[in-house]
Amino acid sequence: MSDLGxxxxxxxxxxxxxxxxxxxxxxxxxxPYLLGSPPSPHVHALLPILLFGVSGAWVxxxxxxxxRRVWRILFGPIVAWPAIAISxxxxxxxxxxxxx
Length: 100
Hints:
single chain, 100 residues, mainly alpha, 4 helices, 0% strand, elongated
């Protein structure tokens, strides 16, 4: 028997999205200086991408399924997880080598 729900999404991916959203949100809320004080222009430019990915992870993790296909794709894990990963890695790289 498959563990796919009626939306065709595995519960583990929803749990991962929710855990990722909680982790990144809590980090940004409780330790904002991790981004730098003051944040560099690189971090400032990447933060909207990170926050868009986090919002998509919240939507997917909480189980909301938008009616329109374009919103399902934009707020699904296919877009959210890479947005969080790529922007997080680029923010970390800008913190490691701030002069570049």
